[in-house]
Amino acid sequence: MNNATLQSKWTAKQFFIIAGIWLAFLISFITRLSWSTIMPTAIDSLHFTVQQGNSYVTIFYIGYAISVLPGGMLADKFGYKKMLLAAVLGNFVVMIAMVFMQGYWMGFGLRFLLGLVSGPDLSACLGIITEWFDGKKRATATGIFNTCTSFGLTVINIYAPSVMVHYGWRATMGVTALFPLAALFFAYFALKGNPPFPQQFGIKKANGEVKTESAISRLKGAINNRSVWMLAITGLFATGAKWGVTNWANLFIVKSLKFSVITAGTAMSIFGITSLVSMIVAGWISDHSKWSRHVWASIFMAIFTPTIIGFALTPHGNLFMLYFWTGAMGVGAFMFSTITNNLSVEVAPTDQRGTVSGFINAFNQSGSFLAPVLLGQILAATGSYVSAYLIISVFPLIAVVALLFVRESDADKYAAAPAAAIEE
To answer: What is the DSSP track for 102-153?
Structure first.
């Protein structure tokens, strides 16, 4: 590959690649959030209790946490593009089935299945980025890709309430199913072509033979790395803190700070905007700096703790400080994720990027599930929202310490090497 391709300017094909994986991962958030949006109406129609309705949210994340590691391993075996398209197709099939669900257990099983089929999506998307972007563009590409996580909540709230009011919750599910169908067609054509840094399906030995290993041996080899474990610990604490404070923010603003629901919504809109912008900025800084990615990730993550504290100590009735600290917390909660997502594939062997990112994502999902539970336990024990936030504000500092032990892998040399020099 010539030097012109490695210049800082993106090609038209790279824009299509980002658009394809951005849309594919966006629909994963839309489909997982769809039940939460329609739940108030659907549980009345289906005669569910609130606890039964909430269990549909929980069972999705259990299925997702179970499948992220095997999904990453399958992506390494069959290809990133194939696994991403399979995940999108699975989302479409399950959402269509949910339109016709009857009874609690059928829906419960379908939500679990939705989590399972969504598992490979992040590993596959991050793998595709490594195939199409060199090391000087990759973090920026990851930052742009990450914005779909913030955008998904916006999209579902634009159409779902209106469709549900006029046509019912089943129609809303049907409309939601059109998103993965559209994403499937667009991603299929957008991801066509031969990438400049193609995925490695095996490592060749000196005699030219491809090294063969069992799945367990490959997994042990992939995670037998200090940096991988440090990123897993980072994900457990930092991602847990991120989604813990995010999921509780509206409740805290209304119940503890005594602001209105509308004010809380405005504050969280600011949170969403600052998080979106910060993820792109973080990627650009990392790509254009001589400092290592783990150093920048540590700096961005260190911002998170003081923003949680500032948010928790917001004076009652002070609207300016509420908006300021909510916006600042959006930066703290999301800015680091661009770099940590990037590192999860850069510390991996070139033929096991899906496996490693899936392994790290399993810890991310565990943190996302456990942190809100921990917040609830602290609240029950202390009766104080502020105490709960102050305790969880320590989590990002633990993640910062873990990040200091991360080192970018020599495998990243493939990111800057000519495609012809990389053996398939």
So the answer is: -SHHHHHHHHHHHHHHHTTHHHHHHHHHHHH--TTTHHHHHHHHHHHHHHHH
